[in-house]
Amino acid sequence: MRFICDDNLGKLAKYLRILGFDTIFREPISNAKLLHAAATEERFLLTRDRRLTGASHPFGILLLENDNPLDQLRMTISKLNLTILAESIFHRCTKCNEICNVVDKALAANHLFPFILQTQEIISQCPSCKRFYWKGTHYTRLLQKLRSVIPDEAIEGRWPD
What we know:
Blueprint: E1 3-5, H1 10-18, E2 23-25, H2 31-40, E3 44-47, E4 61-63, H3 69-79, E5 84-85, E6 101-103, H4 105-108, H5 114-119, E7 123-125, E8 132-133, H6 137-149, E9 155-156
Parallel strand pairs: 1-2, 1-3, 3-4, 5-9
Antiparallel strand pairs: 6-7, 7-8
Helix pairs in contact: 1-3
């Protein structure tokens, strides 16, 4: 499933990208432009704006009333009965939404601290914004947060380590 989030759901968009979902987030964006982008790009619309719930949209709209991004994620997964492919987790750029590629550490040498290069086996990079990703301490904490709100039955495959 592909998503577009209104400009009140930036953290939710990031979480959905981490889980492997193609998710667009543009800030700021008017309701008219948001609806147009959702329709032309064939995306399900996630919103906090009650005014959008009365709009006609062929791919669906979900109103998220909770302020907490993790609760928004839990509700999105539950209401839409989403299945999360374990092999897709942590493969999208959290900024650009592009799928990241594993790169040779030598290519990252001028961009990352030596400690990271020495301690990490796998370095990935976004082909669009060139941002680098690796399994640092932030990875472990984020994985724990996600596991706390996502039911095991929503995961297809094994959670990443």
